[in-house]
C-alpha cells in the first residue's frame, strides 16, 4: 500500500481543485464505423470512412496540450494523475459484437464520475469504448488502497447489441433536417434496451445531479443513476 495519503471526495464542479486525472492521447484511434458513433460524426468530416491510429502529428499536438495543461495545474499545487493507455489499435469483441479498433483515454470525464467518496465507471454507449475503463483501473486501485472510505463502483456493463440502436437512424435517405427534428424531440440513435450513459453527461450540484439525455445517455441510463444515488 502506498504511503501517500489520498482522499476521494468531490461533490461539484466549482470547489477548489486539489487532485485530478488528466488524460493522454497516446495511441488514440479513429474508431471503426459502429451504430452509436456514426450518429455523432458530421457528414463532411474527414473521419468518415476511415479508422485506425491517428497520425503521429495529431497525437503529439494533443499530448503537448494535455501535458501543458497538467503542468499548469501542478504549478498551482494541484496533484495530477494520468491514465495508463492500452493498445487501442486492436480488434475487440464480446459474444455480441466485434469492432476493429478502440478509441483512446484522452477524456477521463467521459468514463469516471466522482460523487462524494465514490468513483463510478459509466456504462458508455460506444462499442469501441467498452474496455476504456482499463486505463483507469491502476489509479482506482491506488485510491481504493489509500482511502478506506473510497467506494469504487461500476455501472452494469451493457451488451451493446444491435437492439441498443435505431437501425435506420443513419440512413442517407433521412438527411440532416430530419435528424435535427428527431434531436428536438429527444429521439436519438440509442434505444431504451438497457441503461446507457457517459459520465460527462452528468453535472454535479452536491447531492443533486443534472443528467443530459442525448446521443450517449438514454432515459434508462438516467433512471439507473437516479436509483443508484
Automatic annotation (TrEMBL):
Keyword Transferase (UniProt): yes
GO biological process: creatine biosynthetic process
Keywords, ordered alphabetically: Transferase
One GO location term (cellular component): mitochondrial intermembrane space
Gene Ontology MF terms in the entry: glycine amidinotransferase activity
Keyword Nucleus attached: no
Family membership noted in the UniProt record: Belongs to the amidinotransferase family.
Name by which UniProt lists this protein: Serine/threonine protein kinase
Native species: marine metagenome
Amino acid at each position: 500500500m502506498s504511503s501517500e495519503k489520498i482522499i476521494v471526495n468531490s461533490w461539484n464542479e466549482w470547489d477548489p481543485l486539489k487532485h485530478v486525472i488528466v488524460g493522454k492521447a497516446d495511441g488514440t484511434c479513429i474508431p471503426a464505423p459502429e451504430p452509436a458513433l456514426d450518429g455523432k460524426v458530421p457528414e463532411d468530416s474527414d473521419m468518415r470512412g476511415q479508422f485506425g491510429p491517428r497520425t503521429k502529428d495529431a497525437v503529439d499536438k494533443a499530448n503537448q496540450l494535455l501535458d501543458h495543461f497538467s503542468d499548469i495545474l501542478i504549478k498551482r499545487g494541484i496533484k495530477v494523475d494520468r491514465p495508463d493507455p492500452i493498445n487501442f489499435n486492436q480488434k475487440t469483441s464480446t459474444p455480441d459484437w466485434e469492432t476493429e479498433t478502440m478509441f483512446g483515454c484522452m477524456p477521463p470525464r467521459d468514463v469516471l464520475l466522482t460523487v462524494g467518496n465514490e468513483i463510478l465507471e459509466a456504462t458508455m454507449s460506444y462499442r469501441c469504448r467498452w474496455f476504456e475503463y482499463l486505463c483507469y483501473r491502476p489509479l482506482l486501485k491506488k485510491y481504493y488502497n489509500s482511502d478506506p472510505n473510497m467506494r469504487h463502483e461500476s455501472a452494469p456493463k451493457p451488451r451493446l447489441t444491435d437492439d441498443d440502436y435505431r437501425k435506420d437512424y443513419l440512413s442517407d435517405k433521412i438527411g440532416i433536417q430530419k435528424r435535427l427534428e428527431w434531436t428536438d424531440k429527444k429521439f436519438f440513435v440509442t434505444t431504451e434496451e438497457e441503461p446507457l450513459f457517459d459520465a460527462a453527461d452528468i453535472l454535479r450540484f452536491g447531492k443533486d445531479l443534472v443528467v443530459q439525455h442525448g446521443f450517449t445517455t438514454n432515459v434508462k441510463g438516467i433512471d439507473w443513476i437516479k436509483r443508484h444515488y
